[in-house]
């Protein structure tokens, strides 16, 4: 996912940079009208990906100040020009395997992180998994793949909007990536639960996988959380 560059200002002073991140991301699409309606109240417009909304499900494994953790986020790609071009992302829901880090995200950054047991396997076949209270909520599993269709160095640098639409932080995500198509050998299993409504939303809006992006040495950086000024 390529994002628009945000202006150089005090807003792009990243307060946290994590290197050596192992990352598995699954891009996909869902019903555009449904996500348009969900985001309208937050003054956000989903990016129009050939008549579908574009979603990004990202799982990582890393360390923050010596604390090992796994994280998964579900984001909707948004546009700042009515849908034609990518202008950032809406962070719909997120999980962290560390109780301390999940609490810190909610308390200090007001981000929608929740405690869960997470799987993030970047070695082939790659896999993403989420479970809570002994119940599997989500799993995306890669089938038999040996060679990526391409290698690239994607960079996202831009705004990440938070639920409610009133706050935003800025992120930088980069690193060499291997890209694989999502095909009939791959699978997505979703078991909706009231404690994690995002998975019911994925089912209701017809989420379908498009591509895998696998990075073994990514960089993730973020700013503090700000009040939006573009509403």
Tell me what you see in this structure.
By secondary structure, the chain is mostly beta strands. It has a single domain, classed as Acetoacetate decarboxylase-like, CATH 2.40.400.10. It is 12% helix and 52% strand. It is built from 3 helices and 17 strands. The chain has helices at residues 32-40, 99-109, 197-204; strands at residues 16-31, 45-46, 48-49, 52-64, 67-79, 86-96, 113-115, 117-121, 127-132, 135-141, 150-152, 156-161, 167-174, 177-181, 187-190, 208-222, 226-227. Strands 1-4-5-6-12-13-16 form a 7-stranded mixed barrel. The longest helix has 11 residues, at 99-109. It starts with 15 loop residues before the first strand and ends with a strand. Mean pLDDT is 92; it is low at 1-9.
- Percent in helix: 10-25%
User: What is the CATH superfamily label?
Assistant: Acetoacetate decarboxylase-like
**Rg from C-alpha positions?**
16 Å
Question: Which second-level CATH architecture applies?
Answer: Beta Barrel
Find the structural class using helix and strand composition. Answer: mainly beta
**Major β-sheet, in short?**
7 strands, mixed, barrel
CATH fold title: Acetoacetate decarboxylase-like
The number of strands is 17
Shape: globular
Q: Please, how many domains? A: 1
